[in-house]
């Protein structure tokens, strides 16, 4: 109800503010008897972690997950998996200056108005730090559907973009550079641009493309819970996301049906895939691919006008350690959200079988 | 679970195939004692109805709603509102040719694979006829939130688009033309283009822009159920939708933070509104606006390769009466889905108050 | 949310007032490709129907179910099953006298206070007529779990009760008499007593016992959704039910652990079954059995004090055609609710399997 | 889905096994800006805690709650309240003997069969230690509805019972004795009996009565989620509960309607209250009262036959520190569950208002 859960069968509920004692969550409905790969979970946490390269925020967050339940002798037991990620290194003093002010394009103001109270330390619940819990759950979800391959990567930063179809990219190069762009020439340009932006104390937006391969036919529910609708919601729930398109996306809106239809091969695969692997909300076995737009983060290391809770406008100098461009660190988050949606539908699909 | 419901407090569940006896739904959680305007409901049905102009499908659907419960002496009673829309004029014979074949970019194939059975008559459950039930519920939802104004309109057809910001448009012109485009010069071009496409037996995509005004501050739930995430899911659940963006959208991904941030006025409004009326998933009182991309409909009045259930490719001539461009009739559906989401969050928001 | 749905995977939502145009519901999540036995559904409707014998109400309700969707060529398609039961023979005039009054121990008063409006005709939504929709859905649920046997029967009427364990009863005798009591000597006494009560214009309570056999091990979810908790809720949701006990029930509260524990046999079955086939909320393969207490129905054909909406007490003569004892007709409802719960958990259980 | 959540608006999800690192939970949907009384929370924890008197188990559990989120400067913020209760003093060695055996009337066997794996230490997830999380959440729920008074007490132990109506009892005496029975003469007998049972290494069942006073009219949802149905489910979800009755309960099933109906006073209150404060599933403002039956706990300090995972029956001596009678410690749990249900419906009720 209150928006802190995702999924129906494989269900994640998260809690935690950026400067509270800990973040965490509960995964309910994870199948039992799954031998968990904890290194794989920690690997995803490292990918999301601040401070991993010079182009991302230098905040230090240890991001060590502690599993409190639902796992016994390394295996899931079918009972809820409770976990916490302690907030070990949060500097509360960095945020005292925003106690009585609302920063532009932050959630400060609306939280105060909605709830009548606000944990002003570092964004509180609206901080992207919350996504750490999503990455934990997503890393477990991936292990429920090991044959399905999920690869996300940075496809644009500002005006710089990869001008190739994803089929021409080598996904094994994604982790080879700080931007997480598999096209290395483009990656270099992006990295240089982000350094420039950082010097200016500014920020810049970007897009992430995600490709899901080896999906069984039949995942997704028709009508309101179409597979792409649920993927879209999951992506739009990530901080700073302003757009989602799958398959032909917004380009498809300019096309004619005779250009857009995907003709079948005799085995049920299709010659083209403008449908993006989904027909009528249900996977058709072709690659699912989609693109997610992130706006530039609102926190700048510049002077900006802010609103006070006394309804005055004052000038404030932004400070702290923030990402000049959020997309490199958002790549594992996009993958995690995709894994949560796909694993959930994978499990739900079993209920259609009477035998 | 099975994807036929939307909403949490104001909850709609729909049923019905395009060629069954009737479509319909249940609205559960509608506030009591609301005097319903039935003409307003029927007006929305007329807007969605096929055959209303020469540029949409000439199929006749009466689309008369019958309310079976939940309304007494013209007022809602707080009990579930059950309604049906009989399928009075469905020509089953039109569809017999697709019994054993799967049309390209339709849901025929995936339904067959997912369920092991398929109502092949006219798309069955995957037909856009299902959206008639959404329009009924959306028209009621609008009456729950009468002070909030929701206006959707066609903003592009193929390559033709309105090149003005929505603030320069007169929403009272939306219903003045068959395309539902408030910019009349553009509307004329769109209409001419759709006629051309129709002559070719082809179809074309388009986009719809929706603007929601006079929204109270505080609607939306943080984290997974952000207001724009739920709006995005609702829009992506409409047949043929391939993309959703709100506020600055995909353009925002190219911008710098210093350009993108919306500075406050002293009263809490903002000078610009690239945030699209939503901060951290919660409405901030500014206009909410978003754009929805529709692919061209897959049914063409041309010869196309189709797959048979014997795994052969054969050529089939498309027939029947279909929309060359779906966006004019999708305008009331976009509004209905927006109304469902906003009304739901409006009611949910009451639960945060202890007094 | 608003209480008109039951189930998670196999989910029923109902609508309809006793004197509206129709009752009905939507079953969402029914497995596909199940060949439905429509005679079996109608048979259950006949069992619930008023007027079937001289000891039940002589109201005539045709109770003919019309399926509007989700079934194609006799089989379920996996899409929602919408159905209606028209209210063909409701005499509205019978109820005009209660428009401005609240009958004792009816829901009139609380509906008016909760919703600010009330469909006063015949109890409206609070009428037991709503259970017709449950019987439809329960009859379909039974067909999802055909190997599981559900038998309910009347175990007491007033002070008259069967003084044998259920193992000594022949369930094939349940339908042999108007009371639905398989112990024929007791059945006769019950029937005579109900006739006597009817003559007095009074009503009497009773209990129904339900036995579920051949249940697979493992149904039920631990903690909040224990199998017996869900069964209990389902039974308590039936009109007039005031109590639920399973296995040893209230008697078990008087026992010692050394008497109560069920020793195992080597095959995992147990020598005794005071646990009622459920351990820790999960079925253990033994018979599940429980008992449901129904209070006497509140409508009497006697003079009674009633409250007016002007806060006066006046004397009113009860009239109409009502059941002197509700339990005989409640037997199929108890079975239907049990079937809904068991089928739902049966389907949910599939999601624990990763392969 | 997987049964670890309760509530819709005020929603609790719990995790944790008896011998894992910690138990805990997330409360989602708690209204914001509520100043929490932490002493009141800890007081409820003390009431549930083992080792508080000589007639309950002598296990030591510190049961100190740590709040990790959702509370800021002592007030709720409207974001999810995450909390943990570390398992500080669990003696794993006590349970090694049950690794390969299934104890009679425990959940060992069904967990193993359902999940294919089992955390055998001390009952794992099926341990009543899980209820500690419920007491935390219930104590917060009580603070949402401060004017509603919830009092539970032990009404019987074995064959010993209070033979007075609850109106003749002084609830302030409940905490005055180890049994939590407000009738002191009966309390003494109960205590003596429990000591006797304890000496025998046996256990005994009992009942708890709960009275909820000062309830606003209109709480509860009709049809499937009737107030008493939800209360019943909540109670039946407590470990060892085998029965639930409210108002006249099972006695009501023996009565005639003319005896059972509650006549109105002119102010809408009723002269009698056999309805138990609920009509048609909705509170009517009178006292809500119900009774809960607990079977004797299955763990005995005696020799018992157990089943091995090699399908052999062996004799095992029960050991450890267990409650001879669970009802004294279950009193705060019953109150907590009642508070969760009432608070949830209290909040949900706000959504019916359009203004």
UniProtKB/TrEMBL annotation, chains A, B, C, D:
Keyword Zinc-finger among record annotations: no
Any GO CC annotation of this UniProt entry: cytosol
Annotated GO MF terms: chorismate synthase activity; FMN binding
EC number in record: 4.2.3.5
Metabolic or biological pathway: Metabolic intermediate biosynthesis; chorismate biosynthesis; chorismate from D-erythrose 4-phosphate and phosphoenolpyruvate: step 7/7
Chain sites annotated for binding NADP(+): 48
Cofactor(s) required for function per UniProt: FMNH2
Record key words, sorted: Amino-acid biosynthesis, Aromatic amino acid biosynthesis, FAD, Flavoprotein, FMN, Lyase, NADP
Cofactor note: Reduced FMN (FMNH(2)).
Residues holding FMN: 125-127, 239-240, 280, 295-299, 321
InterPro entries the record matches: Chorismate_synth, Chorismate_synth_AroC_sf, Chorismate_synthase_CS
Any GO BP annotation: amino acid biosynthetic process
Record flagged with keyword Lyase: yes
Record-linked CDD domains: Chorismate_synthase
Catalytic activity: 5-O-(1-carboxyvinyl)-3-phosphoshikimate = chorismate + phosphate
Chain's role: This reaction introduces a second double bond into the aromatic ring system.
Subunit comment: Homotetramer.
Family of the protein in this entry: Belongs to the chorismate synthase family.
Protein name (database record): Chorismate synthase
Highest classification ranks of the organism: Bacteria, Pseudomonadati, Bacteroidota, Flavobacteriia, Flavobacteriales
């Amino acid at each position: 109800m209150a928006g802190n859960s995702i999924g129906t069968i494989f269900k994640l509920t998260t809690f935690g503010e950026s400067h509270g004692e800990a973040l965490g969550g509960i995964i309910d409905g994870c199948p039992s008897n799954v031998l968990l790969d904890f290194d794989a979970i920690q690997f995803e946490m490292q990918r999301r972690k601040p401070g991993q390269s010079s182009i991302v925020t230098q905040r230090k967050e240890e991001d060590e997950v502690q599993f409190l339940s639902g796992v016994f002798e390394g295996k899931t037991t079918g009972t809820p998996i409770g976990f916490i990620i302690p907030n070990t290194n949060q500097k509360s003093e960095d945020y005292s200056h925003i106690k009585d002010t609302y920063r532009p394009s932050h959630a400060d103001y609306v939280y105060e108005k909605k709830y009548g109270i606000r944990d002003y330390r570092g964004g509180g619940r609206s901080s992207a730090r919350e996504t750490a819990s999503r990455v934990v759950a997503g890393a477990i979800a991936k292990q429920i559907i090991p044959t399905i391959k999920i690869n996300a990567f940075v496809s644009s930063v500002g005006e710089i973009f990869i001008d190739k179809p994803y089929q021409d990219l080598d996904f094994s190069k994604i982790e080879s550079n700080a931007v997480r762009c598999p096209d290395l020439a483009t990656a270099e340009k992006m990295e240089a641009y982000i350094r420039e932006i950082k010097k200016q104390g500014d920020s810049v937006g970007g897009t992430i493309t995600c490709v899901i391969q080896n999906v069984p036919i039949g995942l997704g529910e028709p009508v309101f819970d179409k597979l792409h609708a649920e993927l879209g919601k999951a992506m739009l729930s990530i901080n700073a996301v302003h757009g989602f398109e799958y398959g032909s996306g917004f380009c498809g809106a300019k096309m004619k049906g005779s250009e857009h239809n995907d003709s079948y091969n005799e085995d049920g695969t299709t010659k083209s895939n403008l449908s993006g692997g989904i027909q009528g909300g249900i996977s058709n076995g072709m690659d699912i691919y989609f693109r997610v737009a992130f706006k530039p983060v609102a926190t700048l290391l510049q002077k900006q006008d802010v609103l006070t809770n006394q309804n005055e406008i004052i000038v404030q100098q932004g400070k702290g350690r923030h990402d000049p461009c959020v997309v490199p660190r958002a790549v594992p988050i996009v993958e995690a959200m995709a894994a949560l949606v796909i694993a959930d539908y994978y499990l739900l699909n079993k209920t259609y079988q009477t035998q």
